[in-house]
Amino acid sequence: xKEVEQDPGPLSVPEGAIVSLNCTYSNSAFQYFxxxxxxxxxxxxxxxxxxxxxxxxxxxFTAQVDKSSKYISLFIRDSQPSDSATYLCAMSAGANSKLxxxxxxxxxxxx
Amino acid sequence: EPEVTxxxxxxxxxxxxxxxxxxxxxxxxxxxxxxxxILGQKVEFLVSFYNNEIxxxxxxxxxxFSVERPDGSNxxxxxxxxxxxxSAMYFCASSATGVTxxxxxxxxxxxxxx
Lengths: 111, 114
Description:
The complex is a heterodimer of chains A (111) and B (114). Chain A has strands spanning 4-6, 11-14, 19-25, 32-38, 45-51, 54-58, 61-66, 71-76, 85-92, 100-101, 105-110. With 111 residues, chain A is mainly beta. In chain A, a hairpin with a 2-residue loop joins strand 6 and strand 7 (61-66). The radius of gyration of chain A is 13 Å and the shape is globular. The N and C termini of chain A lie far apart (38 Å). The termini of chain B are far apart. Chain B has strands at 5-7, 10-13, 19-24, 31-37, 43-50, 53-57, 65-68, 75-79, 88-95, 104-105, 109-113. In chain B, the strands form two sheets. In chain B, strands 2, 4, 5, 6, 9, 10 and 11 form a seven-stranded mixed sheet that branches. In chain B, strands 1-3-8-7 form a four-stranded antiparallel sheet, with no helix packed on it. Chain B contains no helices and eleven strands. Chain B is globular and about 35 Å long. By secondary structure, chain B is an all-beta fold. Helices cover 0% and strands 50% of the residues of chain B. The A-B interface holds A 4, 32, 34, 41-46, 49, 88, 90, 92, 94-104 and B 4, 35, 41-45, 48, 55-56, 58, 91, 93, 98-108.
């Protein structure tokens, strides 16, 4: 089983839709969970960062972590065309440890 | 807003040639990283660097790879003898604290090995 698996996509939604992006993982040592956004020809940009299980909200974005199920999610409310990008989940075992990424899912928000 | 800058944006090289990818981290950052992404695949960790030493490296980072901070501003990745499978986007990242949630990535250097 791959360490981090992410829904392959691509995903296309109308403007204003609620988007749900998900990753599963197999390594129970992962404690830190991140979502990155990557625009075409750009580097990954950190969106959300959570430690252990629970929810974290930042504006239109909500990150959820369920360590018992080894499952993390990113919800985007009221999606905008500017949200069109590739979204990468990433996780690490320690606060200073390397990141392990999912493959990324490309989201397109149609006006 | 401060940013990590990388050069070149794209380099084409022949197999067996040496390549140096350059990065200028954010000025007050002390922790530096290289990741790479082969087309269509995941972003993969290569190496982390702090206090002029490698902190952690992956299996990918073999003897063909080296990193250096030659002066107070640059951080370089050298590939001694490139292989076809080294073709990828190489991302430099830096952090002020070394905390995984506080990495800032550059825009990447695309390496094409022919």
